[in-house]
Amino acid sequence: MAVPKVCGIETEYGVTLRGAAESNPVLASSMLINAYVEHRKVGWDFEDESPGRDARGFAREGSAPPEVETHLVNTVLTNGARYYVDHAHPEYSTPECADALELVRADKAGERILARSMQASHRLLEPGQDILVHKNNSDGKGNSYGTHENYLVDRALPFASLVRTMLPWFVTRQVFTGHGKIGSENGAAPVDFQISSRADFFEEEVGLETTLKRPIVNTRDEPHADPQKYRRLHVIAGDANLCEVATFLKVGTTAIVLAMIEDDFIDKDLAIVGPVHAMRTVSHDPTCRATVEMAEGGRATAIEIQWEFLRLANKYADETGLELCGGETVGTDVLARWESTLTALERDPSSLDGTLDWVTKLALLDAYRERDGLAWNDPKLSLLDLQYHDVRPGRSLYERLVAAGKIERMVTEESVIEAMTEPPGSTRAYFRGRCLAKWPEAVVAANWDSVILDVGSEPLRRIPMMEPLKGTRAYVEPLFNECSTPAELVARLSS
Amino acid sequence: MPEREQKKKAAPKERVEEDVEVAAPTKQGEALKEELDDLLDEIDSVLEDNAEEFVRNYVQKGGE
After folding, report:
1. Is residue B63 part of a domain?
2. Is residue B48 assigned to a domain?
3. CB spacing of B46 vs A144 below 8 angstroms
4. Is some CB atom of chain B closer than 8 A to the CB atom of A336?
5. Domain-located, residue B28
6. Which regions of chain A carry the CATH code 3.30.590?
7. Which H, E and C letters describe chain A, residue by residue?
8. B9 contacts chain A (CB < 8 A)
9. Domain count across chain B
């Protein structure tokens, strides 16, 4: 049975310390985050939840909080997001969102937070130095870093049935999720321009790895919620998107497909023979006409397979509704945009300039190629490819296109600015964020599924949040309004 | 999939109309071209100096 598609996006940003003898990315990432949070830093709680303990909730703990065993910066923001150093990148994990539109806003707020961090980092840097941040997924030299999506999934669903449908899903959705890049990497066949920056890096169909031998379907089983009821599908096969429509489609369509799998609604075998190879085949063809071999016989283009998914999704919407897929309003918009996007991709992909990243970037590169007569290997084109993703408002080519009115936006800038500090009201991120905003000194640590509060003279209290849709504005806003101390809040929650 | 087939049939007709529009340069087309030129000029002004060096030095550590 389908469960509500609570979702989030984690992005590892590219980072460069410029003007220093050596660019230390870990140090640069730490400086960005420290500069942003200043003294408002609250630690991340690394202790694993135990299933037996989280069921009841609000249990008293007599001991000190778990030691944070990392020297890397790791913090939680009042909007419910996690902002930290992962490997050698600053990573922003959005708060949990209940629908794709809310997630578009939360993800865009992450870009603004990184931009503000860069600005603030000048206080910590030597004169002449600056930190550059790019929302991309590869350096063009074989090094890739991820943008991961997360979706709440029913624990009862056999993982194998999820894998069978998600493989062709991830292969074919690239036609709207890719952010485009010049050339190929990781030993892939040479190509001028391809749809996805990530396709070349997938080497396995299914697996636990994320850094080596990357699998199309990742099996990490860390639900960050009641493990008896839920899985968290950790999706590593996606590109970082700047276009809001691309993020919206990426998340909205994937949520519907997952709900259909959970409800055993997919009555057609859409499996592709050799999905790892097919990933590249689809990405390497910006005309979207390349075909892949279907397990049940014959060949199909990514768009044809997408039409099958959409046909099923429309039927699913009619018969089951989209309440669990972000609600009817958002779900219906997802279906409409999905259809118009496939229609446009089939007729003329370039008509999606301003809505999909890869098409927008390709149009920009083509305009330069035409005006300046540049070959695909010209460094100026590579710079455009890279600077499209620069997060600084003045330097980001994507933002220049927004300013020129070339990009379709789905959320207002005011609401994005608000989402930098305000949590979404629709998930437990609201509880986490409000605790931090109201009693920053009392929040000792926080995690996706718990908050640890120092309530004064008593022992520290750990408040489990194993249900992603509890702790929402509707549930707890009155409590925050009525309680003047964290001790009062804990007392009210326990009663 | 009746819905889908219908769409597919409709597509070529609309495509022809588009081609006609593109074939004859119009005032609107020229205005668009000018607008694009202005945009590229503006982008030129914010591009990093020395493209070759900038791109060469852009090296990241793998992540995830």
Report:
1. no
2. yes
3. no
4. no
5. yes
6. 7-418
7. CCCCCCEEEEEECEEEEECCCCCCHHHHHHHHHHHHHHHHCCEECCCCCCHHHHCCCCCECCCCCCCCCCCCCEEECCCCCEEEEECCEEEEECCCECCHHHHHHHHHHHHHHHHHHHHHHHHHCCCCCEEEEECCCECCCCCECCEEEEEEEECCCCHHHHHHHHHHHHHHHHHHHCCCEECCCCCCCCCCEECCCCHHHEEEEEECCCCCCEEEEECCCCCCCCCCCEEEEEECCCCCCCCHHHHHHHHHHHHHHHHHHHCCCCCCCCCECCHHHHHHHHHCCCCCCCEEEECCCCEEEHHHHHHHHHHHHHHHHHHHCCCCCCCHHHHHHHHHHHHHHHHHHHHCHHHHECCEHHHHHHHHHHHHHHHHCCCCCCHHHHHHHHHCCECCCCCCHHHHHHHCCCCCCCCCHHHHHHHCCCCCCCCCHHHHHHHHHHCCCCEEEEECCEEEECCCCCCCEEEECCCCCCCCHHHHHHHHHHCCCHHHHHHHHHC
8. no
9. 1
- Cα separation of A405 and A385, whole Å? 20
pLDDT of residue A45: 74
**Residue B12: inside a domain, yes or no?**
yes
Count H helices, E strands: chain B?
3, 0
List beta partners, residue A354. none
Q: Considering the entire predicted model, what is its pTM?
A: 0.91
pLDDT per residue over A35-72, tens digit each? 998 755 667 776 653 323 322 233 333 333 333 334 57
CATH number corresponding to A7-418: 3.30.590
> Which tokens sit at A236?
């590593």
The residue of A309, A382, A398 whose CB has the most chain B CBs within 10 angstroms, and thus the best one to mutate to test that interface, is: A382
Q: Has residue B24 got a pLDDT over 70?
A: no
Q: Which of helix, strand or coil describes residue B24?
A: coil
> Touching check for B59 and chain A: CB below 8 Å?
yes
pLDDT confidence band for A228 (50 / 70 / 90): very high
- From the candidates A45, A54, A86, A200, which is the catalytic residue? A86
Domain extent, residue B18, equals 2-57
pLDDT digits (tens, 9 = 90+) for A302-340: 999 999 999 999 999 999 999 999 999 999 999 999 999
| Contact criterion met (CB < 8 Å) for B61 and A367 | no
Tell me the per-residue pLDDT of A116-136, one tens digit each, with 9 for 90 and over: 999 999 999 999 999 999 999
pLDDT given at position A40:
58
- Inspect the interface and report whether the beta carbons of A346 and B11 lie closer than 8 Å: yes
Q: In this complex, do B54 and A383 lie within 8 Å of one another by their Cβ atoms? A: yes
Interface confidence, given as ipTM, is: 0.89
A86 is catalytic: yes
| A421 shares contact with chain B (CB less than 8 Å) | no
